[in-house]
Amino acid sequence: MVDRSFADLSLAGLYDRLNPWGPGDDFYLEWVMSAGAVLDVGCGTGQLLRRARELGHRGRLVGLDPAAAMLVQARRAEPDVEWVLGDLRSRLWCEEFDLVVMTGHAFQQLVGDEEVRASLRAVRQALGEDGRFVFETRNPAARAWERWTPDRVHEISDAEGGAVRVWHEVEAPVAGDRVTFTETYDGGRWSSPRVCRSTLRFLSAGPLDGFLGEVGLAATERYGDWARAPLDPTSPEIITVAAARG
Q1: Which residues pair with residue 60 across a beta bridge?
Q2: What is the reported pLDDT for 161?
Q3: Burial bucket for residue 4 (CB in 10 Å: 0-12, 13-18, 19+)
Q4: pTM, entire model
Q5: 205-214 and 113-126 helices, crossing angle to 10°
């Protein structure tokens, strides 16, 4: 689960351990490898673009993230990528990319209507002719937040081999399509647990299409999981491929 808590360098170093490579990364990697110029919005530690370079991608790769600590990790691992500090409202590009991606449910961190609109306008402006915008959100019908409970503890090892325990707790009541929760980290590196608070927005396909249409984008493909199954009420994801209309 991606959130802004990883602005902290001590937590940024744990990100890849908490989020190992999986089917979603394979899905996005296929798109990246077929595009000449790629912008990864909310790139985090940059593992997607790093893997693309390792596999021989020689085009332009740009990773954008608002957390400097995440980009520290990215630059250490792969200097042959443009790592840019900021977000879609602060760094703008004009028709420079064949592909824009937002992975790791980063789109759900756009909580307000105007934040969504501004970010999508920037994506539309960044895309060149025949460009694609690929992103995913959790399907609200699947109610994933109901499984974010303190009894579900995830344990990983840090870089020094120490144990770190991580759990989530949703703040009740859930208000509309916004879910606020805490993410707690507990381990020997800290004198007391670190608690980070985040809010995510769960938009269904209809409102997503409405926001896309406002900025001149339209969904051309939509899937319910990383195997490209059709979207239905039980699907865990809403995976969208969008292009400019007309």
Answers
A1: 37
A2: 79
A3: middle
A4: 0.93
A5: 60
